[in-house]
Amino acid sequence: MMMKSIPVILCIAASMTIASAQSVFLYYPEQPEPTPQPVGPCFLLMNAAGQLPYHATGSVPLDCSFHLDTKCRDGKNRRPLPIGSEPMDISSLPESSSLSFQCKLSSD
Predict the structure, then answer these.
(1) Nearest to 78, CA basis, from 93, 59, 89
(2) Do 81 and 65 form a contact (C-beta atoms < 8 A)?
(3) Which CB contacts under 8 angstroms, 24+ apart, belong to 70-74?
(4) CATH classification at residue 94
(5) Considering the entire predicted model, what is its pTM?
(6) What would the 3-class secondary structure string for the chain be?
(7) Model confidence over 53-95: pLDDT tens digits?
(8) How many domains in the chain?
């Protein structure tokens, strides 16, 4: 019984590692390490302390967009922000508790 569970655990660990390889890293004030977020899903930008990030980087080239609602459905056509390995200043984004962010792999 124990032998069958080992490959399943290894498979889950491998898929988690692959998924985390494509991330956007958000840099918040007073946090020594960036906060990783997966590429694809919509997420809120404000952290638990009520702060917005000031920089973002990507593990791979990304096209990211911000939205003024919590579900990334505000319908605004905004030019995507290209985010790569160099820090991108995002401190000028509007301050809002419902500001959300979504990234996808860059088409370049």
Answers:
(1) 93
(2) yes
(3) 70/42, 70/44, 70/98, 70/100, 71/42, 71/100, 72/42, 72/100, 72/101, 72/102
(4) 2.60.20
(5) 0.76
(6) CHHHHHHHHHHHHHHHHHHHCCEEEEECCCCCCCEEEECCCCEECCCCCCCCCCEEEECCCEEEEEECCCCCCCCCCCCCEEECCCCEECCCCCCCCCCEEEEEECCC
(7) 999 999 999 999 999 999 998 867 678 899 999 999 999 988 8
(8) 1
Whether 70 contacts 99, CB under 8 Å: no
Q: Which pair of structure tokens corresponds to residue 35?
A: 């906060």
CA 97 vs CA 22, 29, 70, 81, 93: distances in Å: 25, 16, 9, 20, 12
Q: How many residues does the chain have?
A: 108
Cβ-based neighbours of 87, under 8 Å, separated by 6 or more: 27, 55, 56, 57
Residue 13 lies in a domain: no
The reply to whether 65 falls in a domain is yes
